[in-house]
Amino acid sequence: MRNPLADIGGARKHERMSTSLLPTTERALLRRLAREQRNGRAPSLIAGLVRDGETIWVGTRGWVDGESPTADTQYRIGSITKTFIAVLVMRLRDEGRLHLSDRVEDHVPGTAVGDRPIWQLLAHNSGLTAEPNTAWWERTPGVGAESLLDTIDKEAMRPHPQHVFHYSNVGFGLLGELVARHHGEDWATVVRREILDPLEMTRTTPHPVAPHARGWAVHPWADLVQEEPTEDAGAMAPAGQLWSTVEDMTRWLRFLGGDTGEVLHPDTVTEMRTPTSVDDGGVWAAGMGLGLQLQRYRGRRLAGHSGSMPGFLANLLTDPDENSGAVFLANATAGPSGALVAELLDILDEHEPRIPQPWQPAPVDPALLELTGLWYWGPTAHVVRILPDGMLDLVPWQGKGRASRFRPNADGTWTGLDGYHRGEQLCVGRAADGTPNHLDLNTFIFTRSPYDPDAPVPGGVESWR
Predict the structure, then answer these.
(1) Which of 16, 307, 334, 364 is the most buried (most CB within 10 A)?
(2) Does the structural domain 75-351 have CATH classification 3.40.710.10?
């Protein structure tokens, strides 16, 4: 019987694509990819790596219709679709058209989840069921929006405890309808206009456009395959409909890492990557931000999303701290592991660790120098230094404690970006001659000497003895 996957004659020149890496790194990456494709028995598998805003490696194994897949071959990306819906919701928020604390009822009335805030749908902790009360939505023609909304009744709410992490495909079907109602057009049209076109992601579509892979199920006990259906999911499409390529997905990795173009402010993407709910397993290693899955892996803080639909698996994760990321796409219902992306990042760091940029002097606003040096919170010494980007860094002088970076504001105040003081305001207090003599960090007073008696709080304390 002819192999339904490929006429493999002449199709073996697919070991790797263009790369800017060392040959030893390429070989290690290819070997990891080859092991995953063989052990996971995927008809084809393609992966890509980004670092510092560039795609630095794409590797493939297997065949699509007799040819090696390329960075332009479409695969179904499943639940990675949810990240696009989340971005559209955040755009509505940033435009002032909704608040994340708004009740769902205020925007899509008539469901049992109507009393929950929008952000709980994004973070999968609204208490809503995982799957719709319809036929198996991934393998049957989808229903319309009104039919889906009719199924979101009291039976669709999970028992207590609610407000904890419980993954819900239904929730993103509902968010897709929210987006459609705000724009007066279907969600896919809005995704194209507001995200894909501005980012030049021309090969991400709601339906396959050649060249594309077919989806396969692999027999569990024999090396046989069976083609999987690719139905239009209807109102559930926002949960997993899109098709894309490695080339487009590496652009999406850069977006999720902060290279957002004009689609979102980078601060909004940072907000989306901030933990909102935790997947309460044996180890707190995973959770959700606002539409993004989060992982803690060997000290890394990763954000992105996995995806699966009949015949397809995908995963992409960005490491914003390292300005890197990885993605894989496969046309198999099961087999390849989502851990592949993190392990590709490990190989990159092991074989080509970053070499620090040489230190060199940088221009600094002279007025900021008077803020640097030692400050005391009570008896505890802290240090303020100026970062290369003009922000202030407040850290304990010795040992652990509350550390934060601060961004300048136009009115002379500073806003905390991370740590305990995230979002809090720092004001500089000055003596009569204009010299900074204390820092007021949301009522916490830092002074140049421990318990300065001239400080506003506590002030007037007795001298040391």
Answers:
(1) 307
(2) yes
